[in-house]
Amino acid sequence: MIAAEQYGAPIEIDGGAIRGRIDGQVVRFLGIPYAAPPARFELPRPPLSWEGVRDMDDPGPAAPHRIKSFPMVDPTPLVGPGSDGRDGDYLRLNVWAPKDANGAPVMVFIHGGGFVGGCKDAAVHDGSAFAASGIVCVAINYRMGIDGFLPVPGAPTNLGLRDMLFALEWVQRNIARFGGDAANITVFGESAGAMAIADLVTSPLAKGLFRRAIIQSGHGAMVREIEVAQHLVRKLAKVLRIAPDADGFRGVSHAAAMDAIEKVAKPWAVDLRGKDGCEPVYGISRFIPVYGDDVLPEKPVDALRKGAGREVEVVIGTNAEEMNLYFVPTGVRKKIGGLLARWLLGRSHPQAKAVLKAYGYKQQGVRPGEALTDAMNDLVFRWPARQYAAAHQGKTWMYEFDWRSPACDGELGACHGIEMPFVFKTLPSVTGPRGLAGMDPPQALADRVHELWAGFAKGRAMPWPEFGAYRMVYQVTRGEALHEPVMPAAAFVPE
User: Which of 138, 314, 332, 474 is least surrounded by Cβ atoms within 10 Å, i.e. has the fewest?
Assistant: First the structure.
């Protein structure tokens, strides 16, 4: 039995009254419904109301997705629990607030996972440290995969992004009850969450919902034309033996949908290259936002160049060795042969051989997998992020996270996701023999990175020059801003 004094006073929000659990100077509210349980291919709706006071100490279910085992690294702290989808009431959010907050800045986190996995409850992005730093921190779930990012004929497009917009509108209406300032909101996210934020910066439907954005390992180039994404619709319909429309997909169970997602994830399963011959996700995920609707009327980078999102202050960055997460534990970086490396890259890029040669392929001492990994670090993450920073007409700061994890026998390095436990000050969650950060990660670096993020949310400019004409990039471990290096990828990425 939990003593009543461990809970805060009830507060009224959309749907009814709730109480949060007090933990020292932090009050946690887990699993607040910001929308009703989603109906497949329908727009998000207001949450169902309830009687009495709900104690918000149960995070609730995640959106339907599967967690696969990963060689050498435990992914659970990074992505949280999976879900079979039987409990559909997952459009929820968590709030961590300072105990006596009043007009505090707000940070809203959107998780990654390739638009097919992850949830708000992963240990690595627990928001307690931000609350302890004087910030009201929010983390949200959203629809993923077929339900969230498949442009099915007869259904609204970009439903996952629409869920995020709906959650941000909920924050605008309700966050003052938690002590937060609705006029001072920073959205931040990693990987797919960062891609989504980069897109929403340019969306006319997001105008006025946030003042700042931190885009970690993301950018606005991972979007597809609706016409190209229709290839995926038809392929999935064929796999599921249904009509390629909303009525056909509505009857598909979550288990069958997840089986089909795994089948189309194979490198040879479906061709999603655009007119330029490039596939913008390089096979990492089949599901990404589409442009050409009311959420994203045009490509985000094109919209930036026309001034969209100029009122939003942006911090954007990547990790120095993003693709190591995918290619080191699996052995691809060490073991893949030249022909297979060319074939794999060729599924996403029309000049695969030339790209690999630019990164040392065929040179003495350079393995094909090393050239592939280095090329994709630039093509998938670093260079598109630079393009985004250059296109944004508002205040923009750029960073590169370069601390090298000693995991995987010292080879994991500054991989995708490695900045997360430093940003959230949750290093214990990923420390250990199978932890992303290895055995003894530097807490002092976590303190410094966390303070940079928190300070930005409080309205402080980042302590290095804006990207602008000088193209300065802050290297986190070194603690200094350097001129952007010239990258071979620049010659191979279409505008």
Answer: 332
